[in-house]
């Protein structure tokens, strides 16, 4: 084995190891990104509780103002128009709460989906590194084979030369 073959082998091994390390690093980065995105989804869900509580606080403040205004104007609370306004406000409150929760669920689901894609991206980066490693092994092997003079493709073809000049595909046989 010549020193050139040793250098080619060593460089191939170093490249193989480096490609594996790069693949692991990229997968680790993608997994970390996925964890961050899942944390954001959890924060969105927790913020929903705060948003609903804030909405309810504003709602009860406004209903108190409406009740006070109606009472000042002499309207009897709980009957007629005052009752219709209260019912309408309660209905609108429920719709708004549902809307806040729905939007939160959609946003959290989107973050979780992004996290899944980040994991997939990391897995793909690892697979690409493996493919690069296989390519490195093949190229290094090919280089070593050609340097040693072995397996470098003789002129006889895969079936041997039968003297026909056609690399063994049956032509030129005498009948």
Question: What's the short version?
Answer:
Helix content is 79%, strand content 0%. The chain has 175 residues and is mainly α. The protein has one domain: Helix Hairpins.
What does this protein structure show overall?
By secondary structure, the protein is an all-alpha fold. The chain has one domain: Helix Hairpins (Orthogonal Bundle). Helices cover 79% and strands 0% of the residues. The protein contains 2 helices and no strands. The two termini are 49 Å apart. The model is unreliable at 152-163 and 165-169 (pLDDT under 50).
Work out the number of β strands: 0
Largest sheet, in brief, is:
none
Shape: rod-shaped
Q: How far apart are the termini?
A: 49 Å
Q: Which CATH architecture? A: Orthogonal Bundle
Strand content: under 5%
**The CATH class:** Mainly Alpha
Q: What is the overall pLDDT average?
A: 83
Cα radius of gyration in angstroms: 37 Å
Supply the number of helical segments.
Answer: 2
The low-pLDDT segments are 152-163, 165-169
Order of helices and strands: HH
**Could you please say which CATH topology applies here?**
Helix Hairpins
Q: Could you say which structural class the secondary elements and strand pairing correspond to?
A: mainly alpha
| Integer count of domains | 1
């Amino acid at each position: 084995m010549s020193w050139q073959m040793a250098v080619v082998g060593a460089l191939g091994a170093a490249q193989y190891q480096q490609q594996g390390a790069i693949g692991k690093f990229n997968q680790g980065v993608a997994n970390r990104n996925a964890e961050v995105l899942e944390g954001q989804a959890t924060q969105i869900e927790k913020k929903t509780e705060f948003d609903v509580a804030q909405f309810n606080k504003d709602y009860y403040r406004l209903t108190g103002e409406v009740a006070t205004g109606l009472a000042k104007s002499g309207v009897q609370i709980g009957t007629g128009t005052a009752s219709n306004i209260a019912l309408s406000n309660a209905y609108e409150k429920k719709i708004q709460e549902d809307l806040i929760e729905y939007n939160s669920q959609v946003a959290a689901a989107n973050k979780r989906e992004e996290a899944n894609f980040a994991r997939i991206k990391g897995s793909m980066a690892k697979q690409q590194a493996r493919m690069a490693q296989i390519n490195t092994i093949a190229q290094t092997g090919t280089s070593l084979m050609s340097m040693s003079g072995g397996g470098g493709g003789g002129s006889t073809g895969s079936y041997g030369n039968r003297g026909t000049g056609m690399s063994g595909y049956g032509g030129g046989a005498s009948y």
